[in-house]
Amino acid sequence: MPPLAAPARDCAHFKVPHYPIFETLPAMETTSPRPLAVITGGSRGLGFESAKALAQQGFDLALIAKDGAKLGSAAQEIQGVNVSTFICDLEQPEQVRETIAAITQSLPVPQVLMLAHGVMSEKMSKTLRTTDAEWRRVMAINLDSVFQLVNGIAPAMADARNGRIVIFSACLGRMSGPGNAGGLAPYRISKAGVNALVRNLAHETGLGARGLLVDAICPNHSRTDMGGPDAPRSAEEGAATAIWLATRPFNAAGATDQEKLTGVLWEDQQVVPW
Questions:
Q1: Are the C-beta atoms of 152 and 104 separated by less than 8 Å?
Q2: Is 20 helix (H, G, I), strand (E, B) or coil?
Q3: Mean of the pLDDT values across residues 30-49?
Q4: Can you give 224-257 as a three-state secondary structure string?
Q5: Which pLDDT belongs to residue 22?
Q6: Calpha distance 251→120 (Å, rounded)
Q7: How far apart are the C-alpha atoms of 227 and 173, rounded to whole Å?
Q8: Distances (CA, A) of 54 to 156, 168, 212
Q9: 8 A C-beta contact, residue 72 and residue 37
Q10: pLDDT tens string 109-159
Q11: What is the phi/psi pair of residue 39, to 5°?
Q12: Per residue in 259-268, pLDDT tens?
């Protein structure tokens, strides 16, 4: 990676039609352009921890989040690289489409697309007790927006034959293993859909043979706004596998799962069953 440079003071503001607004905090120019990572949920929690780590490894960032104030504060904490911020309510398909357009029209093709956003369903949201509104809310954020972002941003990454798609899923979305006995229906089913999307896309794009890696991760119970203050893991620990997936060496002929596999679900840098 090229050496990091100190950020400039001036900010350029751009408006996208209707809702999304993005702001770029530019770093000083370097002789070699930095790779770009697009990260949702970038204002806090797992997304923010991932953003900080990738910036330290020399990535420019495009951060997406709903809360503009938190997003701006997060961007100001990250030094030495270009940070573009995109305000977007990922529950709203039109806003997602506008944000995708703003990213693809104003920034280079990313090397990393990391989708770290998500919401939990209501505590009593069992299949026979969930309302239409609650179902749609969770599906729109956890699954529909994931499809939109992958569908809108990843084609150029596939064409470039050099990209990593990392999507935060959940062990509650697994069809096997512990914790799959029911309850939290919209959340579980949305994450099962994410797992299916990851597996399907990875096979469609050659399981890494064409330069695009597609993986899901289970971050486990982490201390975020969703996980709560008593969760056993820090947000930094919860994001560690995603950061590794975004930067790991890959060799389809490698000797270990960590070297040769993509299109799978990872937990603590180990493959776990869907």
A1: yes
A2: coil
A3: 87
A4: CCCCCCCCCECHHHHHHHHHHHHHCCCCCCCCCH
A5: 62
A6: 36
A7: 16
A8: 21, 16, 18
A9: no
A10: 999 999 999 998 877 789 999 999 999 999 999 999 999 999 999 999 999
A11: -130, 125
A12: 999 999 999 9
Q: Tell how many helices (H) and how many strands (E) occur in the chain.
A: 8, 10
C-beta of residue 99 within 8 angstroms of C-beta of residue 86 = yes
* Among candidate residues 172, 167, 228, the one with its CA nearest the CA of residue 200: 167
DSSP per residue, 178-211: TT-SS--HHHHHHHHHHHHHHHHHHHHTTTTTTS
25 near 7, Cβ under 8 Å?
Answer: yes
Helix 45-56 vs helix 235-247: crossing angle, to nearest 10? 50
Neighbouring CB atoms inside 10 A of 165's CB total: 30
Domain formed by 12-272, architecture: 3-Layer(aba) Sandwich (3.40)
Helix residue ranges per DSSP H, 66-121: 68-77, 93-106
User: Whose CA is closest to 84, among 38, 29, 24?
Assistant: 24
pLDDT in tens, 187-234: 999 999 999 999 999 999 999 999 999 999 998 765 666 666 777 777
Residue with tokens 């034959």: 161
CA 250 – CA 210 distance, rounded (Å): 12
| β-bridge partners, 24 | 12, 84
Query: Which tokens is 43 given?
Result: 């204002």
Residue 221 region by backbone torsions, left for phi larger than 0, else alpha for psi between -120 and 50, else beta: beta
**Exposure class string for 118-132: b at 16+ Cβ within 10 A, else e:** bbbbbeebeeeebee
Measured between alpha carbons, how far is 8 from 190 in angstroms, rounded to an integer? 41
